[in-house]
Each structure stands twice: as C-alpha cells, then as structure tokens.
C-alpha cells in the first residue's frame, strides 16, 4: 500500500525522496544501500536497506523506480534504463549511503 511499516521501513506514498523532481538520489539507494537516519514525511527513520537493486538490470530497476514514483498517489516522472545506467556508473563500488546527510550530497 506504500504506507510503510512502523519500525521497519518508511512510506513510499508521498515520500519527498520518491516524488522529487530528479530521481538520482532515489535510484542510488537500491544501488548502494542506505543505513542510518533519514527523515521521511515528517518522521525520522533509522533502518538499513541492502543494495538490492545492484543485482537488477538497468531496465528492471528503472521499472521498479517508475512504479514507485507513479503508485499510491505519487505522480513523479518515469525512470528509463538509460537513466539507471548513468546513475549506476557513478554509484558503482561505493559503500552504503550513511544517512540523510550523505544522501543529500548526491548531485541531482
């Protein structure tokens, strides 16, 4: 339902990270993983996400990101395989993103 689960993972519906004009920060999360504190929809979350998207093809990860950005009332733009390929080229081999402060350093 995109609403997240308390204490487990934040909501995707209406998340400022999901509906951002640019998708690069969102795309880098499944490519690198994310640990630490992140603020989502007025609430602090402190959890870990493995780099689950690293094993997906560019087209498959683009489809997942597009689905997330256009479901549960979200109306952000589509992500293409070429978009993911460009982000993957900059994300390859990096350690997990450590919290919101580091996530915000990723250029949009």
Structure characterization notes:
With 108 residues, the protein is an alpha+beta fold. Helix content is 35%, strand content 15%. The chain is built from four helices and three strands; from the N terminus they run H-E-E-H-H-E-H. The chain has a three-stranded mixed beta sheet with strand order 2-1-3. It is globular. The N and C termini lie far apart (27 Å). 24% of the residues are buried. The model has no long low-confidence stretch (mean pLDDT 92).
Main sheet record: 3 strands, mixed
Query: SS-based structural class?
Result: alpha+beta
Q: What is the count of DSSP helices, taking H or I runs of 4+ residues?
A: 4
**Count of β-strands:** 3
What percent of the residues sit in helical stretches (DSSP H or I)?
25-40%
Q: Spans of 5+ residues with little confidence (pLDDT < 50)?
A: none
Rg on CA atoms, Å? 13 Å
Strand order of the largest sheet: 2-1-3
Task: Write the H/E string, N to C.
Answer: HEEHHEH
How many angstroms does the end-to-end distance come to?
27 Å
> DSSP strand (E) fraction?
5-15%
Shape: globular
């Amino acid at each position: 339902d995109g609403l997240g689960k308390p204490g487990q993972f934040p909501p995707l519906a209406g998340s400022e990270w999901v509906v951002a004009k640019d998708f690069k920060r969102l795309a880098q999360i499944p490519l690198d993983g994310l640990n630490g504190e992140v603020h989502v929809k007025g609430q602090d979350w402190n959890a870990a996400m493995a780099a689950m998207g690293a094993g997906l093809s560019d087209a498959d990860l683009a489809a997942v990101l597009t689905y997330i950005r256009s479901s549960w009332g979200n109306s952000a733009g589509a992500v293409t395989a070429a978009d993911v390929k460009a982000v993957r080229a900059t994300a390859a081999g990096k350690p997990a993103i450590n919290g919101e402060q580091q996530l915000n350093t990723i250029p949009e």
